[in-house]
Specification:
By secondary structure, this protein is α/β, with parallel strands linked by helices.
C-alpha cells in the first residue's frame, strides 16, 4: 500500500517555511485570544479546532493570559487535546507566550527569568503537555535586561519544555539585541509576532525589515482588525458583536470611523472575486516575510470561509494602490 506523508486534510494547504529554519507552518493559524475562555462553550471550541486541523491548519497560538479569565484558553486547549487531538500531537505546532500581567505581586508580569519560567511551567500544566513547540516572550520589557530574558528563553529550550523560542511586539533594535544574544548561546529565534493589517502598517517600518536579515518567520496577528475587515460590520454593528459589547480592544466608534472604508474595501474584494476577509488575509500573505496569519473565529464556518484566501494571494500594483488610497496612505511604506 502506498504511503502518503500528506493525508487529504493537507490537500488545500501549501506550507510556508518559517524563516531560516526547518519548521513549516500553515499560512493560516488559529489564534486563541478570544472565544476559548471559560465563558465560551467548549463543544464549539472543540469543533473549531477540529475543523481547523481537518482543513490542514496545524498551528495553534495561545498565551498564558488568554481567556477570559487568564489561563482558561490554555485549559481549554488541554481539554481539546485529551478529548480529541492528542494522538495527532506530532502533527500539531502549539505555541504559547508569557510577559503580560498574569498574577498579583512583583513576579507575575514582564520579561524576568522568574516570571517567564514560572509562566511556562504553569502553561504546560494547563495544556497538559510536556513541551510546547514555540515559547514567546509576549512583549518587550524595557525594565528587564534583554540578557536576562534571553537566558530564560534559552533555559526553556535546554530544559526540553520548548522546542523553539520567539519574540512578540519587539521594537527593531531590541529584536536585534535578543537575537544576537540567543545566537551566541546557539539558540535560534524562530519567529517574531506582530500586529499587521491593511490599516496597521507600522510593522513595515519596524519588524518586517529585520526578519530576512535575522532569518525569522513573520507571524501576523489581527489581520482582520478584530473582525472589521470581514462582512460582520458591512451593514452596521450587530448586537452580538465585539464592538457592541464592553470590549476594551474594539469600540463602537472604531467601527463607525472606518465604516466608509470598509464599504469601499468590500467593493474591491468583490472585484478580486473574494470576500472582504479573504482579501484582507491575501493582502497580508502577499509579503514573503509573513509565514502565517493568526485568524480568530467564533464558529467553525468562519475558519472554512477564510481558506479560499490562500488561492489568490497575487496582487497587481493597481490593486495595492487602490487599498492605499482607500485607507488614506499617500506614501506607502516600503
Amino acid at each position: 500500500m502506498d504511503y502518503s506523508p500528506y493525508p487529504e486534510r493537507y490537500s488545500a494547504i501549501s506550507f510556508n517555511r518559517c524563516g531560516k529554519s526547518g519548521v513549516m507552518l500553515s499560512p493560516l493559524s488559529l489564534g486563541f485570544w478570544h472565544n476559548f475562555g471559560d465563558y465560551n462553550a467548549r463543544d464549539n471550541a472543540l469543533a473549531m479546532v477540529q475543523t481547523a486541523f481537518d482543513h490542514g491548519i496545524t498551528h495553534f497560538d495561545l498565551a498564558n493570559n488568554y481567556g477570559p479569565p487568564p489561563g482558561s484558553a490554555e485549559e481549554c486547549m488541554g481539554w481539546i487535546l485529551h478529548r480529541s487531538l492528542l494522538p495527532y500531537r506530532d502533527e500539531l505546532f502549539i505555541s504559547t507566550k508569557a510577559g503580560h500581567f498574569m498574577w498579583p505581586g512583583p513576579y507575575g508580569d514582564g520579561g524576568s527569568r522568574k516570571n517567564l519560567l514560572a509562566s511556562l511551567d504553569q502553561s504546560l500544566k494547563r495544556l497538559r503537555l510536556d513541551y510546547v513547540d514555540l515559547f514567546y516572550i509576549h512583549r518587550y520589557d524595557p525594565e528587564t535586561p534583554v540578557e536576562e530574558t534571553a537566558s530564560a528563553l534559552a533555559h526553556a529550550v535546554h530544559s526540553g519544555k520548548a522546542l523553539y523560542v520567539g519574540i512578540s511586539k519587539f521594537p527593531q533594535e531590541a529584536a536585534r539585541a535578543i537575537y544576537r544574544i540567543l545566537s551566541d548561546m546557539h539558540i535560534h529565534v524562530l519567529a517574531h509576532q506582530f500586529r499587521y493589517n491593511i490599516w496597521v502598517r507600522q510593522a513595515e517600518q519596524d519588524q518586517i525589515p529585520s526578519l530576512r536579515e535575522m532569518g525569522l518567520g513573520g507571524i501576523a496577528f489581527s489581520p482582520l482588525a478584530q473582525g472589521m475587515l470581514s462582512d460582520k460590520y458591512l451593514h452596521g454593528i450587530p448586537v452580538d458583536s465585539r464592538a457592541a459589547g464592553p470590549s476594551c480592544f474594539l469600540k463602537r466608534e472604531h467601527v463607525e470611523e472606518k465604516s466608509h472604508q470598509i464599504q469601499q474595501l468590500d467593493v474591491l474584494a468583490h472585484e478580486r472575486g473574494q470576500t472582504l476577509a479573504q482579501m484582507a488575509l491575501s493582502w497580508v500573505l502577499r509579503r514573503p516575510e509573513i509565514t502565517t496569519c493568526l485568524i480568530g473565529a467564533s464558529r467553525p464556518q468562519q475558519i472554512i470561509d477564510c481558506l479560499p484566501a490562500l488561492q489568490h494571494i497575487s496582487w497587481s500594483q493597481e490593486e495595492l494602490d487602490k487599498i492605499d488610497h482607500i485607507v488614506g496612505i499617500r506614501a506607502p511604506f516600503s
